Amino acid sequence: MWTSPQAQVERASRWWKDIPGLEFVHAEAGDYLTSNTTPFDAVYSVWGAVWFTDPELLFPLVARNLTPGGIFAFSQAEPSPGAYGPQPMHGKWLEGRESELTVLRWQHTPQAWTDLLKRHGFNDIDARILPAPGGEGLGTLLVRAHGPA
After folding, report:
1. Is residue 123 within a helix (H) or strand (E), and if so which, with residue range?
2. Residues with Cβ < 8 Å from 96, sequence gap 6 or more?
3. Which residues contact 107 (CB under 8 A, 6 or more apart)?
4. Binning pLDDT at 50, 70 and 90, where does residue 125 land?
5. Which of 32, 64, 92, 146 is most buried (most C-beta within 10 Å)?
6. Burial 126-148, CB ≥16 within 10 A → b, else e
């Protein structure tokens, strides 16, 4: 069962309410990072904004919003062999959707993600594929980088 983004934020806020200074926000990533004035120690995307946002637009915003040396981490599905760059994703995968929706998702090899991050000032980058459990199917791309110092 899908849960609305707002319900997920409310649930996370309740679950982690004892962590000082932790705040959960539901917003479009680019818009939020453009208007944000408070630096972050960490920015992460779990099968989220990095997958569905042009990195040439998103990465400069993340870099600008990180504290010096802050952590940027993201995960998403391992790219399908030969399917790199922006790829259309089709389907009725949102609950209650009657018509097919097409969105772009960005897929790159770990080395290509590393090169993109370096170009935007990130360093100490670790980009790798974690194999799928049991070795069947696609794995998970996991990337960690430090922001500009």
Report:
1. strand 123-130
2. none
3. 76, 77, 79, 80, 83, 84, 85, 87
4. very high
5. 146
6. ebeeeeeeeeeeeebbbbbbbbe
What is the maximum span of the chain, computed from C-alpha positions, in angstroms? 47
The two tokens of residue 147 are 């922001």
Prediction pTM value? 0.84
The secondary element (H helix, E strand) that includes residue 140 is: strand 140-146
Residue whose token pair is 């040439």: 56
Average the pLDDT over each of 26-30, 97-101, 112-116 and give the range with the smallest value: 97-101
Q: What pLDDT is stored for residue 1 in this prediction?
A: 45
Identify whether the C-beta of residue 116 lies closer than 8 Å to the C-beta of residue 108.
Answer: yes
Distance spanning both ends of the chain, measured CA to CA: 42
Tens of pLDDT along 67-109? 999 999 999 999 888 888 888 877 665 556 677 777 888 999 9
Helix (H) or strand (E) holding 91: strand 85-91
